[in-house]
Amino acid sequence: MNPGKDRRRVQVSDLARMIDHTLLKSDATASQVEKLCAEALEFGFWAVCVNPIHIERCRILLAGSKVKVCSVVGFPLGAETTAAKVFEAKEAESLGADEIDMVINIGALKDGKWGTVEDDMASVVNVTSKNIITKVILENCYLTEKEKIKGCRLAMAAGADFVKTSTGFGPSGATLEDVALMRRTVGDELGVKAAGGIRDLHTALKMIEAGATRIGTSSSVQIITGSGG
After folding, report:
1. Annotated catalytic, 101?
2. Nearest C-alpha neighbor of 3 from the set 40, 47, 44
3. Catalytic residue among 101, 120, 161, 178
4. By residue range, what is the domain housing residue 92?
5. Which listed residue (68, 85, 150, 193) is catalytic?
6. Counted domains in the chain
7. What is the pLDDT along the chain (229 residues), one digit of tens a residue?
8. For the chain, which has fewer Cβ within 10 Å, the N-terminal or C-terminal residue?
9. 97: CATH
């Protein structure tokens, strides 16, 4: 299914299947990862999103379920070499990841080195199997509007499946304006993942209305249960 065509007004009951339940803290423990997976199973989230060291544990805990395992590449700075990102992506798939969220070469984008940016994205897309979903993180808080648009267009050219707003580690996260801009730019060709600072139901639904087809958050349970404000 083309990820861009999932956009619609959703009910709360549909929302769980649009959420990547996220735990990317550097000090995440085994017990926290186990809790993350248990919550994903209980509430029916689309995926858990974890650092690469936790992929295998999640794969075991989620075996036989519909919950996907998402991991990250070049995270959170995007400043690794392309060769390093390629190695990370290959290893993530070999460990059992279904989806990969990679951070672009932000500095190269700001320098106008379009070929470098596209090659960095395409190298990760092309090294993984066709069934692996690749999301490209632009980290919009560092970009101008023109750079955001160019980043989205380069992601389309590179064959990515999604563009994503933020890592959650920058000075700011997803905004409605950025999500709408990304959706206008990619049309129905790509999915749009809104991540960073989404902590309540109202904000999550507004992001979807603006054009997001996936939500990345560590506040998933609070959002679904209505305890997040």
Report:
1. yes
2. 47
3. 101
4. 3-225
5. 193
6. 1
7. 444 444 445 666 689 999 999 999 999 999 999 999 999 999 999 999 999 999 999 999 999 999 999 999 999 999 999 999 999 999 999 999 999 999 999 999 999 999 999 999 999 999 999 999 999 999 999 999 999 999 999 999 999 999 999 999 999 999 999 999 999 999 999 999 999 999 999 999 999 999 999 999 999 999 999 864 4
8. N
9. 3.20.20.70
